[in-house]
Design brief:
The protein is mostly helical. The protein has one domain. It is built from five helices and two strands, in the order H-H-E-E-H-H-H. The protein has helices spanning 3-11, 18-44, 57-90, 95-117, 121-147, and strands at 47-49, 52-54. It has a two-stranded antiparallel ribbon.
């Protein structure tokens, strides 16, 4: 990157507008909370039916809401890519925590896609564990990135 473009990148703030931050936080909380609720309902709140245990009726709703929030999150990832991630990377600001966040988001997008579109029970089991494992940790990764006190290097 040329000196001119680095200086130009530094002249722009990495901070999102207030409305963008609110949309990002509401979406992130929505994706995370609906994913956690799906896990709880799927693994711990099955109901007894005439033929044994069956899925809780609310499980499907949590999954549908999770998918809806996820579509919004993918769009916001595009916004972050142009307005926050690339600029922060070029400014050498919070590269480790930001890089881990980007890797986690990409892994969640790919694994979510695979869970929905790839029809293989064996692959589905592995992908599911990867997806909800990274998803559960994503909140902690975000908090580490957000609370990091690093400053851009010169």
């Amino acid at each position: 990157m040329s000196k001119f473009s680095v200086d130009k990148a530094k002249s722009y703030s990495l901070l999102l507008s207030r409305n963008q931050r609110i949309l990002l936080y509401v979406t992130a909380i929505g994706v995370w909370a609906t994913g956690v609720l799906w896990l709880i309902f799927h693994f711990f709140l099955q109901t007894e039916g005439p033929f044994g245990l069956q899925n809780n009726p609310l499980e499907k709703i949590w999954l549908q809401l999770h998918a809806g929030f996820s579509f919004i999150a993918i769009g916001l990832f595009g916004l972050l890519w142009t307005n926050h991630i690339v600029r922060g990377w070029h400014m050498n600001w919070r590269r480790l925590s930001g890089g881990v966040m980007v890797a986690a988001i990409v892994a969640l997008i790919v694994s979510g896609y695979a869970l929905y579109y790839v029809e293989s029970q064996k692959l589905d089991d592995i992908t599911s564990i990867i997806h909800w494992g990274i998803g559960l940790v994503a909140l902690v990764l975000f908090l580490i990135h957000w609370l990091s006190k690093s400053r851009p290097s010169k």
